[in-house]
Amino acid sequence: MPLPPALAAKLAKRGILQQSDTNVSTAAKTATKSAEVRESEAKLAEETAAIKEKEEKLLEIKLKGYDSCPNKWNPYHSCTPFCSEKWGEGKSVPDPEYERRRQKMLMVYPLPDGWQDIYDPGTGRHYYWCLESDKVSWFPPGHPKSCPVVAAAKVRENISNQNNSQEKDTDVEMGCDNEVRDMEPSRKPQNFVKDLRDKHQEDRNKTKGKGRVKFNDLDPMDPASYSDIPRGSWSTGLATGDEAKSGVDATASGPLFQMRPYPNPGAVLRANNISKE
Hints:
InterPro entries: WW_dom, WW_dom_sf. The chain is an alpha+beta fold. It is 50% helix and 6% strand.
């Protein structure tokens, strides 16, 4: 174990420790430190590589999904560790009846050049991949029901890139807006409220003494807003004195709903007796 530099210097000054020993001790200590630094750097590089590999794997699972998950073909489904726990290894072998029908279908609609069939353990079915256009289909390209589309993983990747670009644009806009606010004192809240008050006072001075029209003061449910009926006032339609313009029986006692605009039952019976006689 090398001596501390201060102790080695004191021993060398007293002649107890030779200068060569001190140099050897210092060189050994430097070599030890260099080895420790290299070891720590190598360990840090390994940890960084492991973290990067883990992030890439998580991103790949997020975009492509687990092989055993049958929902990975939904472009709006993001696989989680629950998918792996629930579906396990999936269907490693296709159903014999399905495979027999598939071979029979391929005899009628064989795969052209540039197409490849791939088994999906999540659904237990084969899908067909075009190597040139990078599109997939659940049926061979010659089948009437074939509809080659972009793979769900590509759609998820495009959606993720679009969301990331929108977030970056939003951050840039917010940063620019903050810079403009810092550069323009007139846009500060207190100045904005003051300008609004001054503008409102100017509008009031311009319309003072004139018939000011209030903004949107006509009720859209008012018949005058959508017909030729003249616009009424607050007292239009109300009874004046003993007159009941609404036609209700104002002499009836009780709640308002009992003031009916038609005769009471007794009057109806009396009228019926008179008509019979």
